[in-house]
Design goal:
Largest sheet: 8 strands, mixed
Number of helices: 15
CATH class of the largest domain: Alpha Beta
Strand content: 15-25%
CATH topology of the largest domain: Heat Shock Protein 90
Oligomer: single chain
Structural class: alpha/beta
Number of strands: 18
CATH superfamily of the largest domain: Histidine kinase-like ATPase, C-terminal domain
Length: 535
């Protein structure tokens, strides 16, 4: 009998008769082998340890090999094996608990990790009691260890989900705060751009003041674009598809991208000169670029390089042409994977990378494209996003504010509903200078009162959707109820998810986002007024 099979101290109390059968009236004796058979059917590791100068495993159930890869005989033959296989981070804690409990002879229950023979790490819940000899000395430990790795993994996943939930809630709060700030900031930019552009229109281009005004206007436009880019990470918004040049998107995002990635990351671009256009949502594709770049940054060592590349692609087995946007991170951290061919990601594989990659995958699908990933021999990882190419011409750029041609009014009467007094005064002044008669209202109640007196004469209502006393949509609904033929132009400085939904009864509204240029304002006014009356 080897050490793993030595007979433990007997605890049987039944007494057999002389012929080996139970005596009359006494309970039957349970066979010793029956206890072993019972123990070895349990989904757990049972053990008996003899305590002394050297603690030896007197018995361990054969399940130990299934869980940890070492035979029962190996554990019995090497008294130090179980200590070596304790997880390094748990070893001192476990040994200290055992020292204390053994000295006191008190039962213990604790959870700790063992490292299996093949390197797997398993969590066990370890319960044991101590037995004493006739002198009262602690001589044996009887224990059972149950594998609780799945419960621990579930707890880790739950904690991660809770962390993601908290982060999501924080992001939502930041998004609401950012949108509130954007409302006020875009109102200020509307004022700056408007006054700069009006001043440029009355200033000769040879005047030194003209160039100063042009720089003020350009700075305001850059600030508006920066606000839009910052908001794209903290808002839900309906997609606005249009014909896009991905090269232009990359160039516009490059400055903020470099700041977000940090000074120790070098960002290069390789942009195809004859790149085909795509029909897509600019903000979503910008988010693709940012998420992929951040994902690449997280795998880099200091001094690493990220390359953003665009190219035309005709994909075998797919109809039509595609534009490929790829981002490569080189000089990855230790532990990078070996070279591997490009593979297309599905939803599960994308989610396994990170939440950012899962979002990239979703956006690609929404655009009719897909995502592939590959690893280079140097550890460089490349994500490639394919978007269907579009044959439509590129959307023309608006004319510069100084050269914009004003579209004058024809003495139409306009009800301007705007709570920001400075914005209202500026817009009213622009409209009056360009041939409109303007009624001004700072609240929904004022707008309703003015409209009730002049409903038949008012050609257009230009209304901010966010007012101090009632939503702009509610104001518009009230005015349309008085005169269904009233034409409406709406505006707001909030992000898109704060924009109230247009009621089904009012489907012909033109939306002008703040900040807007003087030319855009006058053009929108003219287009709405000249449009056929809605049914």
């Amino acid at each position: 009998m080897n050490a793993a099979e030595q007979s433990p101290p007997s605890s049987a109390t039944g007494r057999p008769s002389a012929n080996g059968a139970p005596s009359a009236g006494s309970p039957p004796v349970f066979p010793a082998d029956g206890y072993r058979a019972l123990v070895e059917q349990l989904p757990a590791i049972s053990y008996i340890v003899g305590l002394g100068d050297v603690n030896r495993i007197m018995y361990v159930s054969p399940q130990v090999e299934h869980y940890l890869g070492f035979t029962a005989g190996a554990w019995a033959a090497d008294p130090e094996l179980w200590i070596r296989q304790l997880h390094p981070d748990d070893r001192e804690r476990v040994l200290e608990v055992l020292r204390q409990k053994t000295a006191a002879g008190e039962p213990f229950s604790l959870e700790h990790r063992f490292v299996a023979r093949d390197g797997r790490v398993l969590w066990f819940r370890n319960h044991a009691v101590y037995l004493r000899d006739e002198s009262g000395a602690v001589r044996y430990a009887y224990g059972v260890m149950m594998d609780v790795s799945e419960q621990h993994q579930a707890a880790v996943e739950k904690a991660e989900l809770q962390t993601h939930l908290v982060q999501s809630q924080r992001l939502e709060a930041v998004g609401k705060l950012a949108n509130g700030i954007a409302h006020d900031f875009n109102n200020l930019l509307t004022i700056i751009e408007g006054h700069a552009q009006v001043s440029m229109m009355v200033t000769n281009e040879s005047d030194p003041l003209y160039e100063v005004l042009n720089k003020i206007n350009a700075a305001a436009e850059r600030a508006a674009d920066l606000t839009r880019k910052l908001l794209m990470f903290c808002r839900r918004r309906p997609a606005e598809h249009k014909v896009l040049d991905l090269n232009e998107l990359v160039r516009d995002l490059l400055k903020i991208l470099r700041r977000v990635l940090g000074e120790d990351v070098h960002v290069d671009t390789v942009l195809a000169a004859d790149l085909w256009r795509v029909n897509g949502d600019a903000t979503s594709i910008e988010q693709v670029i940012m998420n992929l770049a951040l994902n690449a940054r997280d795998a880099l060592m200091p001094g690493g390089q990220i390359v953003v590349r665009t190219e035309n692609a005709v994909v075998t087995g797919s109809s039509g042409r595609f534009v490929c946007l790829s981002i490569t991170g080189s000089m990855v951290r230790a532990g990078g994977t070996a070279a591997a061919p490009a593979r297309e990601l599905d939803g599960g594989a994308a989610a396994a990378h990170s939440l950012g990659i899962a979002i990239v995958y979703a956006i690609a699908q929404q655009h009719g494209g897909w995502v592939t990933a590959s690893n280079g021999s140097s550890g460089a990882t490349t994500f490639m996003v394919y978007f269907p190419a579009c044959a439509e011409p590129e959307t023309p750029h608006p004319a510069s504010p100084g050269a914009a041609t004003a579209v004058p009014g024809r003495h139409e009467q306009v009800l301007l509903v705007e709570d920001d007094e400075t914005v209202r005064e500026m817009v009213a002044g622009i409209l009056r200078q360009n041939g409109y008669t303007v009624f001004e209202a700072g609240t929904g109640a004022e707008a309703c009162a003015i409209f009730s007196k002049h409903a038949a004469a008012i050609h257009l209502v230009f209304c901010d959707l966010v007012l101090p006393d009632m939503p702009g949509v509610e104001v518009i609904g009230t005015l349309k109820a008085c005169n269904p033929g009233t034409k409406v132009l709406v505006t707001t400085g909030y992000g898109a998810e704060r924009t109230p939904l247009i009621p089904p009864a009012c489907q012909h509204y033109r939306f002008l986002k703040k900040p807007y240029s003087v030319a855009d304002l006058l053009r929108a006014m003219r287009e709405v007024i000249d449009a056929p009356a809605s049914a």
